[in-house]
Amino acid sequence: MPSVIFWNMSGRKYIVAVALLFISLASAAQIHIQGRVINNANGKPIAGAEIYIPQTGQGTSTGPDGHFSLETPRRDTLGILIKALGFRDWQSRFTPEELRKPLLIALQEQVFNLDEVIVSTPYAKHQKDNVTQVVTRKWQVATEKGLTTTGELLDHIPGVRLMNPGTGSGKPSIHGLSGNRIVVYHQNIRYENFQFGAKHGLGIPPSGIDHVEVIKGPASLLYGSDAIGGVVFFVPEKYAPANSSIIDGRIIYNSVNNGMQAGIGYKTSSAKNKFLARFLLEQKADYRTPGNLYAFNSRTTNHDIKLGWSTGKHTVKWDMRYNHTRSLNGIVTAIKTAPAQVYAEPYQRLGQHILSVKNHWKTGSGTLISKAGAMLHDRSLIKNREAFIGMRLLTLNLDEKWRSRFDRGQWIAGIQLLGKQNLNYGHHHLLPDARTANAGIFGLLRYEINDAVIFQSGLRSDLYNIRSRADNEHPQAINKNLTSYSGSLGLKWVAGRNWTLRINTARAFRAPNLAELSSNGRHAGRIETGNPALKNETSTQADINLQWQDVHLEAYISTYYNRIRNYIFLAPTGQTSNGLAVYRYDQTDALLYGTEWSLHLHPHPWDFLHVKFTYTLNIGQRIDGSYLPLMPPDRLTGEFRVAGQRKHPDLPQWNLGLNVERNFATFRLAPHENYRPAYWLIGTYFNIKFGNGLRFFVAGKNLLNTRFVPHLSAYRDMELPAPGRSWVIGFMWRL
Length: 735
Prior knowledge:
By secondary structure, the chain is mainly beta. 7% of the residues lie in helices and 56% in strands.
């Protein structure tokens, strides 16, 4: 018997035997996964394909011969995801017995990027399996086309427009809704930074982002009560594959503002622990407008540090992220013949700390997903070398979701808690000291009726409280308790081989924010007056998305209709005070509706050619038929791209593209809004990737040097044009 044998052994032999026993047990607990990835069309190996296990966060990549191997401590059924450039994403589930045998996986060539795994949706499904349409854009691909800010990236998504381009304060408008109606997720948690302000940008530097996902339309059920316009989800970069280290960097120059962007990152991973660190320095001078004039004091500076640590064993996985950003943003005061040499007052000084923890805990019956975070955002307006306006916003949030499977369905139940506290320290209090609390509870059911039809439905209830402190500038304190509910119904139907139909309806609500209730005084170059009598906004939207796809053509048409009761808007009164226009927050019932069309052609036998067109139309009206202010104009875009054929992994891969954009005239105007003429924008780009990890790109934007004033810009009253012709040159490398 083993016990007798061990008992009679000498001490040294006993220790060795026990050690060997533990090693054998540890080896038995590990599952060694190995396989080969090939092209299903010709059987050739695919080098550089990414292998990923979502449940454990482990990953690796294939070598030149297409082989891969990794070890996992999990002994239950695992899903494996494989991604390779130019091929359809592949995903399947395997039992431990199946994983002990070598895998041979054949990938299908993919022209259109439709199978991206979506992180923002609760089931992390491929796009083709989602009931809700989600648009994704890879940050790496966007950068190689000359897009250097997160705002520019969003502006190239149909139905999304960028407000205040070129000033460093750009933020998105989705189907005509912006500010607090758009919920933003960054570093895995909800992001808050006084986004109500017309000249307050996202404040999210472009480093450390893998891709962005956008949900257009009400998404309050899962993302919070404010998401009646949509969700922008910045997905953080992945860690390095197990037992590997990566060093990468970039240097980018922009001619229109002498902008320089330099960043470096380091990632290392063992079998259990993963770590990353990234630093970015970004500086931009005043941008040049057509006619060689300058937007005086439009300069910006960003310092950004990101750290990440992840660990996991068996059924538990933790991911902790920290981000610190310091920024200076100039406020444009005039158009001059020469740029400012230093920051001219007034300007904005920003700083923020974000700490988040994400945890996956898998049990036999389901998975508990926990997200907790804290964010401190400091925003000040500097005049006379002091903080004329100074505000600190502390945000704490907790998001708990329980996900479980049954037969052909899944269900999710969760709770979300959000608390915010605003404290003033400047001479002028634009907003009073205040506290905001929001608690929501929700449930979501997804059921696959058959292989072609998926049904999804959910309900949510929220309790919202906002309480402010009276001061000399805000004599009336606010204490509001608001409740509401949200719900959604969705259906996806695969109608034949090429057709996919998605139908979604949703009800959502948004409570008025602190600025809408209590603003009092000068802000963003005008006088803003709050309205303490404002009520909840309630949105009811229906949208239909019809998509057709084969190997060489993808097309879709999407139509939405959104009725918002008690829609809150900042309306010009036509009056002035001390030379500044007076605006007041008001409410009305409103209708927002529109359509998007898209066509992506990859003609055969010219496989190197890609042609893409999109058209978007958004209309916003009051219930009396008059138009709402700040609705984006209609837009038509076209992209023509030639892709260099890559015959061998060591040969460079390149793309040459031409972008054309038509912005139509703004003839649907609200009272006191100014007409804006139509204009064309033309751009181009060239990028090349070498086998050693070096990338180079050059891009030209607004090549015709067209002068135009964006209709959504907060600087439209001073007729500030957007940036003129610019050239962007960049190098990126990876070791």
